[in-house]
Design goal:
By secondary structure, the protein is an alpha/beta fold. 45% of the residues lie in helices and 13% in strands. The chain contains 14 helices and eleven strands. Strands 3, 4, 5, 6, 7, 8, 9, 10 and 11 form a nine-stranded parallel sheet that branches. A two-stranded antiparallel sheet has the order 1-2.
Length: 333
């Protein structure tokens, strides 16, 4: 599969951009476990054109993350174009690797974004969505991709026709989450319309399916049944970034890997913590690691007191010592 000139190989696996989850340190470990393509957390176009520090910081990427896309969102056409140009020049603006492609977020269902007409709110205005996409494609040299949903609600599943229109204005790949905006993340993802996009003889760009991929078996089923070119994995990576390795092994061999041991999870947690501190400093790095440290050990028996330490301690050495204790206490699990 190729996005423009970016060759991602056969049946690539994508890390879905998730706000407050897929930061630089989490992307680091997902890449380690075999994510073929990753994206930044979504970046506000309004924030970029106002030179908001947080928005600019989200565009910082590293060489080891390549290929990587910078994802932008918004609903004002001119601001989206300006943001796309800034993303294309991210290496000059903020340093680091920069972007290999620009991804447009037309899929985020969060109310504060959708009600402003951004993210999946754009599903109510497909003509405007296509217009903004064309303006961005015309404004930048990097490949432009789109991530969106089936439609706004059950009565407006417009994705099959919309996919053609987005392709026709020049996007190089399309990711579709198999839910409407009204569903948010409830119910089961419906991949049937994703399959219909692939069946459309007019479609020639890669189609990436997203939604409810939480196991190697489910990933293979979606590749085989719906014919997608790639699969994007979101919530199932949280506390389980090694899912990329598990899926790839299963796709290649038909065999399931054994569950990851506690000792391996402790080692991973230490690497992740070290990278988070390296990128963001002790205070913020530890604060933003808490959600991950807890999730890495979900399911361990009698873990409540230790989990409390992992989400409240502020000293790096105490956190590392607590992780050593996890290894001592549960290492044989």
């Amino acid at each position: 599969m190729k996005i423009g000139e970016i060759d991602l190989g056969n049946r690539p696996l994508f890390l879905a951009p998730m706000e407050d989850v897929t930061d630089a340190s989490f992307r680091y470990v997902c890449k380690e476990f075999g994510a073929d393509m990753m994206y930044t957390e979504f970046v506000s176009s309004d924030g970029l054109i106002r030179d908001a520090k947080k928005s600019l910081a989200k565009m910082l990427t590293c060489d080891y993350e390549a290929p990587i896309g910078i994802q932008i969102y918004g609903n004002i056409p001119e601001a989206m174009v300006d943001a796309a140009r800034m993303a294309e020049n991210a290496a000059e603006l903020v340093g680091g690797h920069g972007a290999d492609l620009i991804d447009i977020n037309f899929g985020c269902p969060v109310t504060k974004i959708a009600r402003r007409g951004a993210g999946s709110g754009m599903m109510k205005e497909p003509d405007k969505m296509v217009m903004i996409t064309k303006m961005i494609v015309d404004a930048v040299k990097l490949p432009v991709t789109v991530k969106t949903r089936l439609g706004w609600d059950e009565d407006s599943k417009i994705i099959v026709e919309l996919a053609e229109r987005l392709q026709d204005v020049g996007i190089k790949a399309l990711t579709v989450h198999g839910r409407t905006r009204s569903q948010m993340y409830k119910g089961d993802a419906d991949w049937t319309l994703i399959g219909k996009i692939k069946e459309n003889p007019r479609m020639h760009i890669p189609i990436i399916g997203n939604g409810d991929i939480d196991s190697p078996e489910k990933a293979k089923e979606c590749f085989d049944r719906y014919g997608v070119d790639g699969i994007m994995i979101g919530r199932a990576t949280y506390g389980h970034p090694w899912i990329f390795r598990e899926i790839r092994h299963y796709l290649d061999t038909g065999e399931l890997l054994p569950p990851m041991s506690v000792s391996d999870r402790v080692a991973l947690a230490k690497r992740h913590l070290a990278k988070s501190i390296e990128v963001k400093g002790d205070k913020v790095g530890i604060l933003e690691m808490r959600r991950h440290l807890s999730a890495y050990f979900k399911g361990l028996p009698d873990f409540k007191e230790t989990r409390l330490k992992l989400v409240t301690l502020t000293d790096p050495e105490e956190l590392y010592a607590t992780l050593d204790y996890v290894l001592e206490r549960w290492g044989i699990t």
